[in-house]
Amino acid sequence: MPLQLRRAVESDVNQLTDVFFSGFRKDGVMSRCFPEKPSVREFWINGLQRDLSDPDVHIVAIVDTDIAGSPIIAYANWVGPRAQPPKSSQNQNVPLYPDEGDDIPLAEFFFPHLKEQRAKNMEGRTCWYLAALVCHEGHQRRGAGGMLMRYGLEEAEKTKADIYLEASPPGVPVYKHFGFKEVDRVVVLDGDFTELMMLREYTG
C-alpha cells in the first residue's frame, strides 16, 4: 500500500510546514492569517516543535512510499484528553497567531473566539481534540484524510472519549461522514466563510 501512517518526529517539521501552507493556500481565513512568508513559517515550525515535545499530542503523518524519499503528503494533530493544559499552553505569551499575518483584525477576532468556544464545548467531557488535519493540495482525494481520521477515532474509542474539532467549509462533509455534528459556528469575511465547531460523542 503506497500510503502509510506513522508518528511524526522533529526532523519532519519542515515537511509538515510545507504541507500546511500547501493545504491551506486557498482557505479564506488561514491564507490571510498565516500567509506563506519566512516569519510565519518560523511561527508554525515553533508550534510544531512544542507539540512534538508534548506527550499528550499525537502528530501523525501520511507518507507516500511510491515517491522517492517517502515524503509526507498529509498530517493530523490530535490532542488527547488531559486533566490540565500542558505547561506550554499555560504560558500566556504563546500566541494563537503570528503578528505578520495579512489580516490582523480577522485573526484577533477569529482565533480567540475559537479558543473560547472550544473551552465551553469541551468542558466536563473526556475529549480528544483535532487541532489540525491538512493534506498537500497535490495529493488530495487519495484517502489520506480518512486514514488520519480513523487514527483519531480509534484512539478516542480506546479512552471512551468524545472528539471535538473546528471545520472549515471543505472539511465539513468529511467530518459529517465520520459522525460529527455541528454544535456551534462562527461566520466571518462578511458572510463568505463559516467555520463549524463539531462534536462526535462516544456511544460505547
From TrEMBL:
InterPro entries: Acyl_CoA_acyltransferase, GNAT_dom, Trichothecene_AcTrans. Coiled coil: none annotated. PROSITE patterns: GNAT (PS51186). SUPFAM superfamilies: Acyl-CoA N-acyltransferases (Nat) (SSF55729). GO terms for molecular function: acyltransferase activity, transferring groups other than amino-acyl groups. It comes from the Eukaryota. Transmembrane segments: none annotated. Residues 3-203 form the N-acetyltransferase domain. This is N-acetyltransferase domain-containing protein. The lineage of its organism: Eukaryota, Fungi, Dikarya, Ascomycota, Pezizomycotina.
